[in-house]
Design goal:
The chain has 197 residues and is mainly α. It has twelve helices and no strands. Helix 4 packs across helix 8. It is globular and about 45 Å long. The two termini are 22 Å apart.
């Protein structure tokens, strides 16, 4: 799976419809929130996979979520665990969570409480997709590490995540543009805009 396929699964009609129903918002609102948030969630996942204090826990979480049955996304979303999703978002966005949610709400016109619900609904699906992909690649080559697979899949380094967050929150944009990791994540945002049209 490449990044286009991964994002295509999360942003498919079935996925956005299921996320919308779970969060209690419109499909348009869901698409707006996902387009702003997914690059940040993926950047957070990349950082979690390579952090000295987070790599092991993140790898374990991926393994657990890889067993989720997402063959029918609609059915999966009907039973999505929003509390678990909110915990995942806590890990992926860290101390920036509140600021990110506030900025996404401002950009999209969606209430902060609803932004939080969309992220909580989408996060378990995202982790399941990532977990399945990491597991598949490790089955093919057991020497592959989670951080290496994530970096290869998402095309960048964790160093870009902080710059991407700073850019979203209104500062350090010039520095972000000079950082290759941030540019890669910026490419994710452009890709998402195309997928969610």
């Amino acid at each position: 799976m490449d990044i286009t396929s991964l994002l295509g699964t999360v942003t498919s009609a079935d996925s956005t419809d299921g996320i919308s129903k779970a969060a209690g918002v419109s499909n348009d609102q869901t698409r707006g929130v996902l387009s702003a948030a997914l690059p940040l969630l993926l950047g957070g996942a990349l950082s979690q996979s390579s952090g000295s204090g987070t790599a092991s826990g993140f790898a374990n979480a991926l393994t657990q979520h890889a067993t989720d049955n997402t063959s029918n996304v609609g059915a999966f979303m009907q039973n999505v665990d929003m509390k678990d999703g909110d915990k995942i978002v806590d890990h992926l966005l860290g101390e920036n969570k509140k600021s990110v949610i506030a900025q996404i709400a401002k950009k999209t016109g969606v209430k902060q409480a609803d932004v939080k619900k969309v992220l909580a609904a989408a996060a378990p699906l995202l982790m399941s997709i990532l977990g399945k992909e990491v597991g598949s690649q490790q089955q093919s080559n057991s020497s592959l590490g989670v951080a290496g697979i994530m970096s290869s899949l998402l095309g960048g380094g964790g160093s870009g995540t902080a710059n991407l967050l700073t850019g979203l929150l209104g500062g350090g944009q010039q520095q972000s543009q000079q950082n290759s990791g941030a540019n890669n994540n910026g490419g994710l945002a452009s890709l998402l805009m195309g997928l969610l049209k």
